[in-house]
Amino acid sequence: MAEVDARWMREALAESRSAWGRTSPNPMVGCVIVGAGGEELGRGYHHRAGLPHAEIEALRDAAARGASVRGATMYVTLEPCAFTGRTPPCADACVAAGVGRVVIGAVDPHPKVSGAGIQRLRDAGIEVVVGVEEEACRVQNAPFFTRILRGRPHVTAKVAMSLDGRLATRSGASFPLTGEAARARVHLLRDRLDAVLVGGGTARLDNPRLTCRLPADAGAEGGPRDPIRVVVDTHLKLPLTHHVMQLRASGASPAPTWLVAAEHADPGAAHLAALEQLGVEVLRVPALPRGGVDPAAMLAALAERGVNSLLAEGGGALLGSLYDARLIDAWIAHVAPRIIGGDGATSPLGGLGAQGMEEIRSTGPLRVRALGPDLEIAAAVEGDVHGID
User: Fold this and answer.
1) Mean per-residue pLDDT for 38-67?
2) pLDDT category of residue 187 using cuts at 50, 70 and 90
3) Of 103, 121, 226, 267, which residue has the fewest beta carbons closer than 10 angstroms?
4) What are the residues whose beta carbons fall under 8 Å from the beta carbon of 216, sequence distance 6 or more?
5) CA-derived radius of gyration, the chain
6) What is the pTM of this model?
């Protein structure tokens, strides 16, 4: 039975990935219903916040197939909810449908659920098994777990660098450093994660678009989509003509741009009015005594807006501030077979860093894969690796 349960839970996990990057602030959830003879009766996944949850989708799929779920086993990657939010409680729907057994991957950490859904099912006489493929189910929803339990988004730092660990030459030239396969991987991350973050220096120097440029048939449900663009602009000095300021107003991208600024930043009424006209929002957070915005306060503000996952693309000063504050959950490096050299060439991680050997932090096991001529090296830092297969 254990292996059968694990196999069907993996099917439910695969189902949940159909909505990768589409469900925030909700988790990604998949569900499969199996009959007494081992036959699949229905399956479904949560598409977006406000739409039916995975359990309801699976029950509807079974009904559309003309299958009775009475006495059947339901496999669901996250505990069914037990409260009314935008949709009714899924636990009640399971009871009403007559499901005989529910196998759950992970307990929902949300304080309104966290065991209440399991208890409701058991009170109705339904057999409940918890913890099947638990680690995989938890990692799949690492962003949701991080926001609920830590009050901030899950943060993935992504860098593209040379074999000797440099981001650019001493003159600042850097693009293209990695090949097409590595750059396509970055666009996949932008499609799967809620928001992309860059520092003000990077935004001013590189003038990036921070959009997702995957083919129309790629990405999750509905095709690729742009992430929310977040730029740390401490003093609100980023030129209004830069791409990230113009994309939404011009109709080139439906995703919003948010500027994170210090509470005291005052660029003048005309600049603020221009930002409003462009549809660019300003998130004000406390500044640090040494300068720059407080990274923890910035992440808390993003979490309050429902951001579960954040892709931090640099530069080195921004990543250093996040790393020093222990706010980077995963590190993904795309390493090109090139050597730049030079004392003035930039490195991917600034900040204070470690002073002594005892301050050096170890990562989780390295996950390495070839991307054309380049290597992708991913490792867990403070959390789990998320967003890549």
Assistant:
1) 95
2) very high
3) 267
4) 223, 224
5) 23
6) 0.93
Residue pair 277/249 in contact (Cβ under 8 Å)? The answer is yes
| 342-376 per-residue burial string, b: 16 or more CB within 10 A, e: under 16 | eeebbebbbeeeeeeeeeeeeeeeeeeeebeebbb
**CA–CA separation, 60 and 54 (whole Å):** 10
pLDDT in tens, 321-334: 999 999 999 999 99
What pLDDT sits at residue 34? Answer: 97
* Residue 127: how many other CB atoms lie within 10 Å: 12
* Number of Cα atoms under 13 Å in the Cβ half of residue 60: 10
Nearest to 103 by CA among 72, 81, 82, 141: 72
**Average pLDDT in the chain:** 93
DSSP 183-246: HHHHHHHHHHSSEEEEEHHHHHHH---------TT-SSTTS--PPEEEEE-TTS-S-TTSHHHH
Active-site amino acid positions: 55
Count of helix runs (H) and strand runs (E) in the chain:
12, 14
Rounded-to-integer distance, Cα 35 and Cα 12, Å: 15
Alpha carbon distance 341, 313 (integer Å): 22
pLDDT value of position 37? 92
